[in-house]
Write a structure and sequence with these properties.
Mean pLDDT: 75
Structural class: alpha+beta
Shape: globular
Low-confidence stretches: 57-69, 329-350, 493-544, 605-638, 681-685, 718-760
Number of helices: 26
Radius of gyration: 36 Å
Length: 760
Amino acid sequence: ISFTSKHGALTALLEMRHRRRRRRGRRDEILFCATDCKYECIIETAQHLGWRIVSGREKDQKKSVTPENSETEICNVYWIDISNIAERMSKLRPWQRINHFPGMSNIARKNRLAQNLEKMRRGFQKEYNFYPRTWVLPLELADFRAQFDSNGRSSQFYIIKPDSGCQGRGIFLTQNFDSISPLEQVVAQHYIRKPFLIDGFKFDLRLYVLVTSCKPLRVYLFRDGLVRLCTQKYLKPNPGNVAMRCMHLTNYAINRHSENFQGNETLGACDIGSKRSLRWFMDFLANEKGQRRSDALWSRMGAMVVKVILSILPTLVREYESTFNKGIRSEPKQTYNSTSCENQLDHHPQTIEGSQCFEVLGVDVIIDQALKPWLVEVNHLPSFATDSPLDSDIKARVIEQTMSIVRAKASDRYTYEREERSKAEARLYSNQFATNNLILAQETQASKVACRIEVILERHAPEKLGKINALLRKYTGREVKLLHLIEQKYLEKKTRQLPTNLQEFQQHYVGSEEHTSPNLTGTNKQPFELSNEDKLPVASCSETDSGVELEDRLLVDFERIYPVPLAARMHSDHTPNYRALKKFVFEQDEKRMRRMSCPLRQTRRSTLDSPAALPPLHRDLKDAIEQKVPWGEPRCNGVEKSPIPRKPLPMPGEKQLLAADRLTRGFSSRQQVSAPCSLVTGDHTDLKATQDYAQRVASTVAHAKKWRRRMDDSRKRQNCQQVALQPRTFVFAHTSDTLRDPHLHITNSGTGLKDTATHK
């Protein structure tokens, strides 16, 4: 072999080894997709954490990094600052993270925010009085028009905002109804005429809220923020100054173009200028109004943020599960309520830690003269532009601490794929053994409960021992609830907390020395699951969720506002009843889902036969073995049951006959003066004649239906040469003699000829 060929082979071998090392090194890097990221401070923070930027702008290079297109699809973390979030959300994989929650647009859009808060205010009027009266136009245009007089004028000012607008575009004040377009999607609100002023200027507060998880819900409030002032002295609105946007609108995008705008040159100058620090404002308020009122305002703003997010919590949970749990086998979904939302286990794979979504919200608040916070809007795409040192300091701390709680790993993709392959192999080769173990565990748990119940009844109520089998059949699948009720009745009056898994059940009732199924822990399903009404209220999520401790340690400048810490509940004068709010919103969501799915349930034959008991939406394993199906014909051990005979329809009554008579003569079915009746009613009416007339009316209706069906069939035919059946018109007399006469006056509308019928 020549020297050249040896040198070429050695070079190729070295390049291959270098390529393998480079791919192995990429596996140890967290990929951050910055394709839709618009702010440099976010990219710099990702680089500081050691993440590799994909399709973003490197700090030390002029050209943008453009790797292969496939790399944008395998990134670990996605940051999106544009409104097209749903497209990226639909392509996410179970091991990827994103800085938005699906369904958060229900409070980011002004019309949906107003509708959700109005729904909650119907049940809790005192708790949800932190936003002005709002009308969604043109949906509530008639109600909004009633606020004006006959000339379209009102003594009160209204602020009109576009539904999907931002940066103050399209916002104006008005007293005239004619200035509002009835075709545009806008919201109208009462204008707050007496706001709290700083040096004579109107202002609003920008609060930064971090949502780290929706199931269970965890919300944090940044202890700093922005105070954005107007650039003109505030005066009460009148027809002469409503057009002055820099006086009434606090948007930074509007006031920064004013000649009176004053910026912050240094970080220490946070008490001057048109943009100031929220921490300075709280100190200023404490000096002016007292520390107690300042702390009360801060707690009220935190509670307001939690109430807003609770109003859409069922939607957040449902859309989160439908987005990220598409291909994951899980237990049958249960109805959500305030308890089950906290206690239900996440259906994520065990290899993926933490929530796949996190989001920073910008909440705008206005303070009135009574120091009451009023919600303005919620931004799910807040601006992280740094135009001043104050912006850089506040927003950099928000982003750094937010990214620190993202529990992404470079090996998430490979770990997830390896876990999925192992699960597929387990389903392929050992599905039968897992099913047998699950059935054995359920039978073992039921037998242990039966033994415990027998011991209790033998000691306290021996006469009820014969009813044990009937009770177990009644509470099939809910044996633990039955045991709890019997213990409450005979043993102790105090409430015991129910076990939520098989291990706790064995420790509580049987003991740890009892034999357990060896392969039970490897299955995805629990041996049994308590229904929502069986679960007792548990403590705050802070005692049960391990991720809270890590987040509290990393989020130094954030305060946890939900779940409320124990220390905050003890020192707070008034903590809202979040459990009642959560229960209410989940009940309302369940009613709405039932109304939406009602037409689907009505099409099932089993539902029509027995509408009181709806079939379950998920098939149980035991029912599947016994060949029981949740809809269709009922079966028992493969044998079909005979259908329930339906009741025959009754004969039409007097009012129905009158309505049918009016319909046959072309009038409305309702009784009107212009629709005379050809039937004779009263005591002297012959019953037999009335029945004969009813039969004639029925035959007329049947003939009309037949004629209409024949006409429709003839139109559908390609060859329309056949003659369709001509309709007949029945003319009934207005006297009572006609009812006793078997003949009728019948006219053929097609030929104009009269049939046999004459009467006196």
